[in-house]
Amino acid sequence: MDEQARILQALGGVNLAGHSVQGGMALPPPHGHDGTDVDGRKQDIGDILHQIMTITDQSLDEAQAKLVYFFNIKLSTY
Hints:
78 residues, mainly alpha, 2 domains, 2 helices, 63% helix, PBC domain-containing protein, PBX_PBC_dom
């Protein structure tokens, strides 16, 4: 028995046509076949990426400010 079949058997009642797994878990539908608004999904992904980049920029700014602060303290102690 291959690994994929073993995993499916371990999950129990798997309905591949409906993409559902016993216990209320749902597998994501295949790409492009769910009928949702693709542009809306792209916008959501873009928004999430923008938030991640903003957080990253803030973290870098904070790290740089700390570096400058500690560098200035080190220079003032000599």
